[in-house]
Design goal:
Blueprint (H helix, E strand, L loop, with lengths): L4 E18 L5 E21 L3 E5 L13 H12 L7 E7 L10 H16 L6 H11 L3 H6 L3 E5 L3 E4 L7 E6 L6 H7 L18 H8 L7 H7 L2 H10 L4 E6 L6 E5 L2 H14 L4 E6 L5
Parallel strand pairs: 3-4
Antiparallel strand pairs: 1-2, 2-4, 2-5, 5-6, 7-9, 7-10, 8-9
Enzyme class: transferase
GO biological process, one term: terpenoid biosynthetic process
Keywords: ATP-binding, Isoprene biosynthesis, Kinase, Nucleotide-binding, Transferase
């Protein structure tokens, strides 16, 4: 190994997120329709004398590169499970292009990218279910981020069902650069036992069909997050009024809000308008990554 290897960590978006129960161990059961946008952090790996991590990029400031970072935890978990798959030590650089604590997968997406990257470097394919098991031990969002394709996530996030079809759609993402701590949002959640998602249409191929289904869903974490950061509601309402917007909603535990569009042109126009209205906020427009 003499070259650099690169893997992307796409932004995770919860199009719908129902909190379906609270387990005795304190974790919550969820039911979520998840997609990924073609805007991402990047992981680079270089041959080195030891496994180590550096962090760069517009949102890298303040992140620690010590052993507690999910990237290095993913490296350690991979090596513990498959000690001979990648014998060379690696220096990783995380280019942090996505806001931190933003409801976009964050460290989970980065950890999943490391697992994919290391799996690709070995001489043989690794069983997907074993990779998923390692991902689940790292965090609830890591299995869905390992897939990084449209999916339904259930349980605490470890039960991931890939969708065979999904409409060609585009998203606008906007974040007010206010970090939101997931645990704080859950503490404000009033009802912990809600119904799960309705059955998905099969096949799911048209934006209008998706919009009709999404109208029967919600993000149960949106009300408590808006109570903490009211501008989330203002961003959602602004995006909802944009021409061509199928749905505007908060992703995950926030504070990122997404708008779902059937047209790239309309998505980019909505992003342009948001940048003009809120010039200090992070805004991106990107296609939704399609099923393989």
């Amino acid at each position: 190994m003499t070259e650099a290897f690169v893997e992307t960590a796409p932004a995770k978006i919860n199009l719908a997120l129902h909190i379906a129960g609270r387990r005795p161990d304190g974790y919550h059961e969820l039911d979520s329709l998840v997609v990924f946008a073609d805007v991402a952090d990047e992981i680079e790996a270089f041959p080195a004398n030891e496994d180590k991590l550096s962090i760069s990029g517009p949102f890298g400031t303040g992140l620690t590169s010590g052993e507690g970072n999910l990237v290095l935890r993913a490296v350690a978990a991979f090596r513990a499970t498959w000690p001979d798959h990648v014998p060379a030590r690696l220096a990783f650089n995380l280019r942090k292009n996505l806001p931190v604590a933003a409801g976009l997968g964050g460290g989970s997406a980065d950890a999943a990218a490391v697992l994919r990257l290391m799996a690709s470097l070995g001489p043989a394919l690794l069983p997907e279910h074993e990779l998923m098991a390692v991902a689940a031990r790292l965090g609830a969002d890591v299995p869905m981020c390992l897939l990084s394709r449209p999916c339904r996530a259930q349980g605490v996030g470890e039960r991931v069902t890939a969708l065979s079809s999904f409409p060609q759609t585009h998203v606008v993402l906007v974040n007010p650069l206010v970090p939101v701590v997931t645990a704080d949002v859950f503490r404000r959640l009033q009802v912990h036992e809600n119904d799960g998602l309705p059955d998905l249409p099969e096949p799911l191929t048209r934006p209008a069909q998706l919009g009709i289904w999404l109208a029967e869903t919600r993000n149960d974490l949106e009300p408590p997050a808006i109570a903490m950061v009211p501008v989330i509601g203002a961003l959602r309402d602004t995006l909802a009024r944009a021409p061509g917007c199928v749905l505007a909603r908060m992703s995950g535990s926030g504070a990122t809000v997404f708008g779902l569009f059937g047209s790239s042109t309309q998505a980019h126009q909505a992003a342009h308008d948001l940048r003009e209205r809120w010039p200090g906020y992070w805004v991106a427009a990107a296609p939704v990554i399609q099923p393989d």
